[in-house]
Amino acid sequence: MHTLKLKMTTLLSFVLITATLLATSSAGNIAIYWGAINNEGSLSDTCATGNYAFVIISFLRNFGNGQTPVLNLADHCDPASGGCTSLTDDINYCQSRGIKVLLSIGGGTGSYILTSDDDARQVADYIWNNYLGGQSSSRPLGDALLDGVDFDIEGGSPDHYDDLAYYLSAYSNQGKKVYLTAAPQCPYPDAWVGKALDTGLFDYVWVQFYNNPPCQFSEGRPSNLQEAWNQWTTAIQAKQFFLGLPAAPDAADGGFISTNDLTAQVLPALKRSRNYGGVMLWSRYYDVETGYSQAIVSSV
Questions:
Q1: Where are the alpha helices (DSSP H) in 221-291?
Q2: pTM attached to this predicted model
Q3: Higher pLDDT, residue 88 or 220
Q4: Which residue from 162, 208, 221, 274 has the highest number of Cβ atoms inside 10 Å of its Cβ?
Q5: pLDDT confidence of 219, banded at 50, 70, 90?
Q6: Residue 217 and residue 158: Cα distance in Å, rounded?
């Protein structure tokens, strides 16, 4: 009897230890930006790799202040002539594989600004009717319903993106949930989407740990990244946070982490965060060039 009790106690301890390890070493996902650069393959080919849980179509570069919103997908297709409606089949294919397909607004270049609460409401209405669950006679990507909107705001003004988040989030009450994501720079708080993130409405936040020496990874002081990560993941309310990285050394002006350093040094520490979500990569073009996602997918 005592032997049986001892075995049961040992088994229970093993189960508890295993559960603790799993809780502190969560499996994550990979998000990828697609559409902004030529020669990166089709959207359906991107999803067919099986490496990504999120594909972010980029970018809606012009919007706000009375402008006609403009989607720019490089040489993939021409939205203005209706040439991107064929992407409906690709989007449906991606979603059939359980991949969330998002529209990214903003980007590093473009003309965008929100000048008032009403301006934000009009932009939200446009996105809802042309890319999400609403209706329009001129949907640039056809009849497919995207899963949500990514805020990659890197210029203009930081004002009224909190209003835009509220208006977009409210559309979730009309049926399909509208996921909200953001790509702030790693210095905290972000100069452009900081106020929007303070709303607590964002599901996924992929922080850009590149082009920012004070908080990106470096061999000399790897703690820079960890300290910034801790600040982001404790200060902002979001479902999950992702480590945003360039998929190749030439994809950014600093911040590239080799796949060995990432999987051996960086990710094990970040996975201790309860709201760790995985890795975001810029972008599909560079990932095709290096095979970065394929090298890390089993370790994320």
A1: 223-235, 259-261, 267-270, 284-290
A2: 0.91
A3: 88
A4: 208
A5: confident
A6: 26
- Residue 4 to residue 36: CA distance in whole angstroms: 63
Cα distance between residue 5 and residue 105, in whole Å: 60
Catalytic-residue membership of 227 = no
Q: How far is CA 145 from CA 6, 92, 269, in A?
A: 57, 8, 37
The single residue listed with the structure tokens 């590093």 is: 108
Write out the H or E segment, with its range, that includes residue 292. helix 292-296
- Which residues neighbour 8 within 8 Å (Cβ) at sequence distance 6 or greater? none
Which position has the higher pLDDT, 9 or 115? 115
What is the C-alpha to C-alpha distance for residues 211 and 31, in angstroms, rounded to an integer? 19
Please, are residues 171 and 125 in contact by the beta-carbon 8 Å criterion? no
What b/e sequence results for 89-108 when a residue is b if at least 16 CB atoms lie within 10 Å of its CB, and e otherwise?
A: ebbebbbeeebbbbbbbbbe
Catalytic residue of the set 154, 219, 227, 289: 154
Asked whether 25 and 76 are in contact (CB, 8 A), the reply is no
Q: Distance between alpha carbon 9 and the CA centroid of its chain, in Å? A: 44
Residue 245: which H helix or E strand, with range?
strand 240-246
The encoded tokens of residue 238 equal 């979001």
Residue 79 has pLDDT above 60, yes or no: yes
- Non-local (6+) Cβ contacts of 199 within 8 A are 162, 165, 166
